[in-house]
Amino acid sequence: MPAPVAGEPVATLFLIGDAGGPRGSEDPVLRALAAAVGSDSSRSTIVFLGDNVYPRGVPAEDHPTRADAVRRLAGQVTVARSTGARTIFLPGNHDWAGRSGGQSGWEAIRRQEALIGELGGPRVRMAPGGGCPGPWVADLAPALRLIVLDTQWWLHSGPRAASAADGCQTWTEAAVLEALGQQLCAADGRRVVVAGHHPLLSAGPHGGHFTVMDHVFPLREYRGWMWLPLPVLGSLYPHIRQSGISNQDLSGPANQRLVAGLAAAFARCPPVAYAAGHEHALQLFDGRGWHAPFLIVSGAGYFGHTEPVGRRRETLAALRASGFFRLDAFPGGRTRVTLLTVDHAGLATARGEWWTE
User: Fold this and answer.
1) Going by C-beta distance under 8 Å and a sequence separation of 6 or more, which residues neighbour residue 47?
2) Separation of alpha carbons 243 and 50, rounded Å
3) Between 66-83 and 28-37, two packed helices, what is the crossing angle to 10 degrees?
């Protein structure tokens, strides 16, 4: 492993995903996040990697679950505002109204953007806006560029931005990938982090990894209290998931097209990392096969919301634990990735750090 560098980072990203079910701003992971930002808010950016409101995003104002959705989002926004750090919320599949989001998902994500605007103040926003696919670009420092994508736009089965009339700069997959490649190559010496909700690689359920419990108690995927043993029929559930029935899984055809497109866009001017959520675990991969040194999966953003995770040959770290990742850009071109887990008291512990060559 390369030797660490001396001095302070010039820019820091805190990467936290699937934080959409907190008990409030006092959730242990959110408290640990605020403590980790500390006095470094001027050079720090918090990126919430989607699934900001479980289970179906932000409903209409007259919906009976509206108040709870506002509470879930407000807990995250309150913590972000308290740090003073610039904060970006990007969309996930649950923000597009989850399983029921076919027709209403685009409306739900625009409602969430409006609510973040009301609650967040000038340093907190959703990106890309308008339910657009992106890429949305922010140069956070002379050393670091952040590019944000709405990967759920790729996978959404209902209405979505599809023409210039929808107010987006790009509205086809080809145009998104072309613009992404241009922004990667126009970074002017900055290291680039690309962020989206869906991972390019995973050893969790969305990547086809299932435990014995999943085979025996498959109904718990839909209702956590349904401990009905189905030891033979239950094995059909993992098999069906692995066969590509859901585009939320890496085996799904639209998801495979997304992964292939992003990897191709990275090939000419690689980012230092691609960061995602979606899986409820903390994973870090050697991403050189996808033209990025690091693939980060940070989907354990509120306490106790975790799932089993396996390992692949590319795995650098894999933990079923609540927490988040920190990425630091140092002078001279070096980058450090740190995995932090959080206990019930809100204490964050670094479980490993990795450096670019």
Assistant:
1) 13, 14, 15, 16, 87, 88, 90, 146, 148, 195, 275
2) 25
3) 20
Per the DSSP assignment, residues forming a β-bridge with 88 are 47, 125
Q: What is the C-alpha separation between 33 and 313, in angstroms, rounded?
A: 30
Smallest CA-to-CA distance from 202 within 8, 10, 18 is with 18
Cβ partners under 8 Å of residue 39, min gap 6: none
Q: What is the pLDDT of residue 24?
A: 78
Mean pLDDT taken over the chain: 90
Q: Is the pLDDT of residue 105 over 80?
A: yes
Put simply, whether the predicted model's pTM sits higher than 0.85 gets the answer yes
Q: At what angle do helices 66-83 and 105-120 cross, to 10 degrees?
A: 40
Cα dist from 338 to 57, 191, 239, 335, whole Å: 30, 17, 34, 10
The span from the CA of 354 to the CA of 349, in Å, is 15
Confidence (pLDDT) at 351 = 97
Query: In angstroms, how far is CA 164 from the centroid of its own chain?
Result: 27
11-207+270-355 CATH: 3.60.21.10
Q: Which residue has the higher pLDDT, 3 or 84?
A: 84
In angstroms, the CA 48 to CA 119 distance is 15
Quick one: which H or E segment has residue 336? Answer: strand 335-342
For the stretch 298-334, pLDDT in tens is 999 999 999 999 999 999 999 999 999 999 999 989 9
Tell me what pLDDT residue 103 has. 80
- Can you tell me the distance from the alpha carbon of 342 to that of 346, in angstroms, rounded to the nearest whole number? 6
Q: How many helices (H) and strands (E) does the chain have?
A: 8, 14
Region of 118 on the Ramachandran plot (φ > 0 left; ψ -120 to 50 alpha; else beta): alpha
Q: In this predicted structure, what is the pLDDT of residue 225? A: 45
